[in-house]
Amino acid sequence: MNAQEPAPTRRGLSTPEELLTVPQVMARLQLGRSAVYDLLRTRQFASITLGRARRIPAHALADFIRTRLEQEAAA
């Protein structure tokens, strides 16, 4: 590999994946804590657990929003 080429990363990203906290997702969706945990429980968007902390990849939140917009447009 050329020294000037960035190392390949998962999903083709050159930067680390942004992980959001539940309060950050609450703020972005303007939802309460229970509603966000319900979405996590029903696997409507992906998350990971690090120790006792739950983190949601930013792309998972974006995918969730995009899917919901497409569903609303199709209805």
UniProtKB/TrEMBL annotation:
Recorded superkingdom: Bacteria
The name this protein goes by in its record: Helix-turn-helix domain-containing protein
Natural source organism: Streptomyces minutiscleroticus
Domain Helix-turn-helix per the UniProt entry, residue ranges: 19-68
